[in-house]
Amino acid sequence: MVMDRNEDAVHLDNPSYMTDERRMIQEVAREFTLKEVLPVANELDPVQGQIPMELRAKMGEMGYFGIRIPEEYGGLGLGVFEYCLIAEELARGWMSVASIIARAGGVMGVTGWSMERRLELTRRAAQGDYLAAVSLSEPDTGSDLASVSCKAVLDGDEWVITGNKYWCTFADGADYISVLCRVEADKDQPHKGLRSFIVEKPRGELPKGCQGSPIPKIGYFGWNTFELAFDGCRIPKANIVGGDGTEGFKTTVSGLEVARAHTAARAIGLARGALEDAVAYSQQRVQFNQPISDFQETRFKIARMASEIEAARQLMYHVATQLDNRQRLDKEAAMVKWFATEMAERVTSDALQIFGGAGYTKLHAIERYWRDARLTKIFEGTSEIQLRIISDRILGKPTNRQNQS
């Protein structure tokens, strides 16, 4: 069941951020979500269905895969702010749909390819027709990416990839997998010797020389998340990101600030969806001859939820604006990721409480927001990792890490 929105009560616009163009972008994305995304989510998430290609095609027509891709490459040429603005709206419907827009682009750094090919594939990506899965984590490596052990060995004109990977979402549905591998060992500086590789494959299949199986998740439905085993997977020598010698570890972490702002936007969208549904439900649900929205505990709960969402949103707007101004924001990006995701778990849980027993069923979307909000505290760096980044920037690294890079 989808509850009616009471948008004015739970969403504020800051005129210093929200230009007329941005309000239009936001409103179009909001209507698209309500019309195209939310009905699909309500139908398919309860049965763990996949994001339909028809919906992906519509998103491509809207330009949502190419938000930050330059216009000359076929994208909209917009900034991080607009990217987060749209992501929040899409996540209000289905977080997986807000996530899939991050899977476009990323091949311009494959310098071993001709410029003509890179441009062609980037234009396709902007339409949602050439999307990536990203394979970083391993069974024994999560937050500590410097410990990646999956190896890539050069054999003539090919790289041969061998090793296990974990938590690779969209590995089957993507057109290629970006795999972080170790090409050389350095005990003193383990983050060195890592590179990112492009493993192209047929859509709907895993690459040749790679086997895998879906991980049984409790949420984040709409696409599969895989455990992968690369066993002599061969790719062309040119399929390496940053062929000029850029290290894979630095290439990977350089995009985390935007990714964490995007995760904050997704968390805010989830929280807002939960709040809007809870507001509507509280006004419809009658107990003791009055709607439960008349009870002070419900009213105060909703007030706290709305305030926390708005605080997270304003921090996100600030971080996105600074990122568009090319500021270094590892601390602030960590702050908004931590604050928004922690907030989302609290707010979705409080919203479910307002629903009572009805919230603990698949008859309402609230349980989806609750499940998916819990994941936002884990991916793109756990809450604990964000607090480590923030505290390191404020206090400096602790003694036992001062000599580490």
Concise summary:
46% of the residues lie in helices and 14% in strands. The chain has 405 residues and is α+β, with helices and mostly antiparallel strands.
Task: List descriptors.
four-stranded antiparallel beta sheet; Butyryl-Coa Dehydrogenase, subunit A, domain 1; alpha+beta; 405 residues; 9 strands; Butyryl-CoA Dehydrogenase, subunit A, domain 3; 3 domains; globular; 14% strand; Butyryl-CoA Dehydrogenase, subunit A, domain 2; three-stranded mixed beta sheet; 12 helices
Explained architecture:
This protein has twelve helices and nine strands. The chain is an alpha+beta fold. The protein folds into three domains: 116 residues, Butyryl-Coa Dehydrogenase, subunit A, domain 1; 114 residues, Butyryl-CoA Dehydrogenase, subunit A, domain 2 (Beta Barrel), CATH 2.40.110; 149 residues, Up-down Bundle (Butyryl-CoA Dehydrogenase, subunit A, domain 3), CATH 1.20.140.10.
Q: Using the alpha-carbon principal axes, give the shape.
A: globular
Number of helices: 12
Radius of gyration: 22 Å
Portion of residues in beta strands equals 5-15%
Q: Largest sheet, order of strands side by side?
A: 2-3-7-6
Largest sheet: 4 strands, antiparallel
Q: What string gives the helices and strands in order?
A: HHHHHHEEEEEEEHHEEHHHH
Q: Write down the CATH class of the largest domain.
A: Mainly Alpha
Helical amount: 40-55%
Q: Provide the residue-averaged pLDDT.
A: 92
Assigned CATH architecture of the largest domain: Up-down Bundle
- Low-confidence parts: none
Q: Supply the number of structural domains.
A: 3
Distance between the termini: 51 Å
CATH fold category name of the largest domain = Butyryl-CoA Dehydrogenase, subunit A, domain 3
- Can you tell me the CATH superfamily of the largest domain? Butyryl-CoA Dehydrogenase, subunit A, domain 3
Q: Based on DSSP secondary structure assignment, what is the total number of beta strands?
A: 9
Output the structural class.
Answer: alpha+beta
